[in-house]
Amino acid sequence: MNVSAKEKNLIEFHGITKTYGVGQAAFQALRGIGLAIRQGEFLAIMGPSGSGKSTAMNILGCLDTPSSGAFLFQGVHVEHLDRNQRALLRRNFLGFVFQGFNLLSRTSAQENVELPLLYRGEAAATRHHAAREALELVGLDGWEHRTPAELSGGQQQRVAIARAIVTHPLVLLADEPTGNLDSKRSHEIMELLVRLNREKNITVLMVTHEPDMAFYCSRVIHFVDGLIARDGRAHLHPTARDVPCS
Amino acid sequence: MFLNAFLLALREIRRNLMRSFLTILGIVIGVAAVITMVTLGHGTTQIVAGQISSLGSNLIIMRPGQRMGLGGSPRFRLADTEAIANQINGIRAVAPSVQNGATVIMGGKNWSSTVNGTTNSFFAVGNWEIVSGRKFSDDDEKSGRAVCVLGETVRQKLFGSANPVGSSLRVKNFSCEIIGLLESKGQSAMGMDQDDVVVMPIRTVQRRLTGDNDVTVILLSMKDGMDADQVMMQMRRLMRERRKLSENEEDNFNILDTKQIAQTLSVTIGTITNLLAAVAAVSLLVGGIGIMNIMLVSVTERTREIGIRLAIGALEHEVLLQFLTEAVALSAFGGLVGIVLAFVTCLALSALMQMPFIFDLGINLLAFTFSAMIGVLFGYMPARRAASLDPIKALRHE
Ligand SMILES: Nc1ncnc2c1ncn2[C@@H]1O[C@H](COP(=O)(O)OP(=O)(O)OP(=O)(O)O)[C@@H](O)[C@H]1O
Ligand SMILES: [Mg+2]
Predict the structure, then answer these.
(1) Of the spans A240-244, B23-27, B216-220, which averages the highest pLDDT?
(2) Whole-model pTM?
(3) Domain for residue A3, yes or no?
(4) Do residues B115 and B148 both lie within one domain?
């Protein structure tokens, strides 16, 4: 990796720890993580169950705060921010794709995708247009009015991705986005993520258990027992070969 | 932002239409009950006022006992009536009255009515017109002959559409000739049918029905322009004199004029109305608790949804506002439905009870505001709970 001095890190972890519980029951899920991520990276987080991947993702996603250490997002110390300030960071810069899709039930794909724009205070026309565009990008034009119950798992996950990117976020966070999908759908989703990473220059941070999926990424981090055991460039998957390696 | 919250709330309510309806039922019934009670109370007051003023503003009633009760106080005598007629100025007519419930029989039909024993002055005091036949003759009154003047209701019950003047009916054990027919006056202030009456000479009633010489009520009407207080004071002095009451003894009779009756009645009606409205208001409160309950259930049910909203950047107060708006929209909608329900109920009831329907904007606005406030009050706690959820835990919630 040839880091040019000019290039600033989008995300920096310095000695991040996370302890759950107190006293006897206290458990340290992260035991001092140092990490730097630059704009445009496609990063996979791997590791055994319980190694702290989701914990790290929650902190990266500004959903949770570290117990100690410094977390800089665009140079801002997130660990000092309160609940609402972190919500604003999520609203303005982050997009989330969850393992269980987590779409609003009984709500059309269109409305689900419009939701983040609603909280940004966008006008109805803008919301409508942007949601259409995002759905088109994930290949769901014509499915706008289906509710999650009327969509397949892969389609639901694509709606979730459309919702995550409709705000043009800097970073897309995905915790096991393909965990609930069969391998064909999983590859479709991965190809979509690669495309978004490449075309929209969205930084993608993804947790996965499947080495297959990690092949798509430009960088793979291995967690073991709350520490980073390995951090390196992955063997690129054939379709991901053109992804610029930072 | 308020508009957004409102639209979100509406969408959520629409999504759970049946449950939303059941949730607001308490509010609907509470609001409808409060408004109906107050509106009917106003209607009743209006009727009472109207009927009392139709009695004439110059009517005075004297009854035995203090205040409105009869008690064990001595009754009046016919001589009292005469004394009043002779010694008090400004009187147009004075009538003694004895009332007695009795079953009247005509052919195969019978009807239980009220027999009112009085004199011809009764027709003058009460502004009664004789629409057919005649009043009592001097002889009828003096010798207590078995004659009567029928009220319209009694005529309808016993004779249908026929004119009964000249025929006879039985009252208890005696036969009584019908000499006249009263005009119809409809319901009285107390809701009694004024036409359900058989008027007889007072001596007839005393001799054949009550068996004593008592007079229970003395009614009188003043000449126009007379001061009721003045006349009442004269009557009081006269009666105290006649009854030989000493300085330190209280009156054992009471004298009221129509104004006082109207006041007493409207105060009573007002009290009853307020009491009923208060009871109804309690059901509004219960309705509010219903809303809180459902909102709490809803927050639990929608934990994941709240997690999603928080994760994609909803601020705490936005989630709070969403749920609060939902509660307020629910309860305010309940209030609106309640107002419509009350309107329909009042319309139907006032038609049924033959009373005027007075739309009271004040109580409608008050009930609506109150129902919306209940939404705020009982929606706040669930909304607070939703807003303070931890997004990570909420997302993981099953
Ligand atoms: N809220 C919590 N309270 C207490 N302990 C927790 C909490 N969340 C996670 N942990 C613990 O922290 C450790 C790391 O959890 P984490 O969810 O980050 O693991 P993971 O790497 O995502 O595992 P998996 O691959 O199974 O999802 C686990 O041992 C877990 O039991
Ligand atoms: Mg995990």
Answers:
(1) B216-220
(2) 0.71
(3) no
(4) yes
